[in-house]
């Protein structure tokens, strides 16, 4: 039994107008993802998908992408990304998954999932810059609260939190201090994030910073190969 992660699958089976193969490095990405996934992941494993999973605008539009993920081995835990427009209330998402037999997909939203002595925690996060704008500040405050709630729920269960975000808490020379403050206060030692693509990969922060081991796990950065955690 192992834990893996890979972000930003950007599946578009239900939205043909959003093909990713028009971008360099994304040619045949679904085939490559499936090949690597089946090579690495067993039914006993768990894979965390930190955002931008499907281009579907609604839950029904995302169904074909969910079914693709359902058919892959392992349990999957999904976070919200900035392009997950299908995202809805926890109740509606869970009802939709159950109604469509998607029993290997689980939503991470104001909660945690136990994994051995660890708690899988996280939220979408928010952008690193421009937070002085009123609307942006409100969104950031909500994401900070959701992250705090998720981490606290794991701690209350006696588990060590491992954090997954969609947006990077650090990028280049920019830092999202509100998100980082939560990580520091809770003594988080592992943080996985996505969102970054293409040329911007070179500015991604990876490795240890101030006691936190940061990992960038966008699917194109990983070569569409899920990253082993433990």
TrEMBL record:
It comes from the Bacteria. One of its GO terms (molecular function) is hydrolase activity. Residues 5-199 form the Calcineurin-like phosphoesterase domain. It holds the Pfam family Metallophos. Keywords: Hydrolase. PANTHER family: PHOSPHOESTERASE, TRANSMEMBRANE PROTEIN WITH METALLOPHOSPHOESTERASE DOMAIN-RELATED. This is Predicted phosphohydrolase.
């Amino acid at each position: 039994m192992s834990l893996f992660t890979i972000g930003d699958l950007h599946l578009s089976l239900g939205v043909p107008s959003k093909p990713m193969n028009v971008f360099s490095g994304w040619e045949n990405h679904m085939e490559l993802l499936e090949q690597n996934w089946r090579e690495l992941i067993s039914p006993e494993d768990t894979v965390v998908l930190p955002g931008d999973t499907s281009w579907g605008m609604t839950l029904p539009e995302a169904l074909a992408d969910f079914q693709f993920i359902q058919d892959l081995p392992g349990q999957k835990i999904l976070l919200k990304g900035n392009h997950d427009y299908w995202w809805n209330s926890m109740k509606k998402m869970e009802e939709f998954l159950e109604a469509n037999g998607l029993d290997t997909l689980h939503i991470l939203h104001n909660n945690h999932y136990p994994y051995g002595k660890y708690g899988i925690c996280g939220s979408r996060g928010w952008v690193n810059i421009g937070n002085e704008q009123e609307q942006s500040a409100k969104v950031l405050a909500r994401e900070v609260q959701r992250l705090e709630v998720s981490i606290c729920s794991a701690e209350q269960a006696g588990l060590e939190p491992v954090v997954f975000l969609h947006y990077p808490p650090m990028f280049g020379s920019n830092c999202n201090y509100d998100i980082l403050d939560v990580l520091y206060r809770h003594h988080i030692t592992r943080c996985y994030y996505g969102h970054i693509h293409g040329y911007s990969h070179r500015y991604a922060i990876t490795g240890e910073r101030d006691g936190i081991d940061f990992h960038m796990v966008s699917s194109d950065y990983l070569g569409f190969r899920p990253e082993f955690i433990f």
